[in-house]
Amino acid sequence: MKTLLAVDGSDNSYEAVRALKYLSRADQLILLHALNVPRPAYPMMMPEVADELYNALERSMREDGERLLDRVQSLLPLHAGPSTKRLELGSPAEIIVTTAEQEHVDLVVMGARGVGPIKERLLGSVSHRILTLAPCAKLIVNGPVKAMKQVLLPLQGPYDMEAALRFLQLRPFHEPVELSLLTVLPSVRPPWPVEAAAAEQLEERALQSARDFVGDVSTRLQALGYKARGRAVLGTPTDMILREAGSLRADLILMGSRGRQGVTRFVLGSVAHAVLHQMPCPVLVVH
């Protein structure tokens, strides 16, 4: 598995480094830091002076970036795999996406927050753009990672299932994990008046179909060597996913992208939008 670790020096960036402890050895590990050097914003400044200030700032940021990459490399777990350092100039989101595309990366790992005192919401941030645009799996780390044993795998249909199976076939975890599959059905009672018994029968039929679905996925995962179990429930998807994550004390939520065009529709205006903004643990999005 080829992994890209994007770092910016923030606390969650270092937590992303520590998360590699729980991932399998990479065939290649790319340590990437993008320099977004601001131009002087003084219209009356002479061009020569502006260029001199910009060049001085770039040299200083480049030196800081090289020290950051050296420190990150020194903190890698012993089994992380062969690593290379890359320092690139430009927009962090564009650099990360371009590198992931050019290097055919299987997984991008990064912290959920940017550098600085302002707590940036996921929506509109670098991490959101990576989720939307990067053509591979994305692990977003939002705080300390103390383990990666209990993995919650919400499934909303065959596309999510196939995406999860493809990723899990890569054997991405360093140690065995327990997969808890969850399918959430919204109310299936018809909006028109119907007898209570008929409505209950309809709900039970829908739930049984969902149980069969997660049961089949569990069987396929067990055949791959994973410990897996699943259940189907009625409720609001976002609420039930977050509740289940809390109940399980999940170390990771693994979610499928659910769209042929990547995660754009999945993240924007969907269940995952709410989960990502309230995530109680790291979230790994696959497609």
Plain-language structure description:
The protein has helices at 11-19, 47-75, 92-102, 126-133, 158-168, 196-223, 237-248, 264-267, 271-278; strands at residues 2-6, 28-35, 83-89, 107-111, 137-141, 150-154, 178-185, 227-234, 252-256, 283-286. Residues 114-124 and 259-269 have low confidence and may be disordered. It has two domains: 2-141, Rossmann fold; 150-286, Rossmann fold, CATH 3.40.50. The protein starts with a strand and ends with a strand. The longest helix is centred in the N-terminal third of the chain and has 29 residues, at 47-75. The chain contains nine helices and ten strands. It is an alpha/beta fold. A ten-stranded mixed beta sheet has the order 3-2-1-4-5-10-9-6-7-8, with helices on both faces. The protein is elongated. α2 links the parallel β2 and β3. α3 (92-102) packs parallel to α4 (126-133) and α7 (237-248) packs parallel to α9.
Descriptive labels:
10 strands, Rossmann fold, 287 residues, alpha/beta, 2 domains, 10-stranded mixed beta sheet
Write the layout of secondary structure elements.
Blueprint: E1 2-6, H1 11-19, E2 28-35, H2 47-75, E3 83-89, H3 92-102, E4 107-111, H4 126-133, E5 137-141, E6 150-154, H5 158-168, E7 178-185, H6 196-223, E8 227-234, H7 237-248, E9 252-256, H8 264-267, H9 271-278, E10 283-286
Parallel strand pairs: 1-2, 1-4, 2-3, 4-5, 6-7, 6-9, 7-8, 9-10
Antiparallel strand pairs: 5-10
Helix pairs in contact: 3-4, 7-9
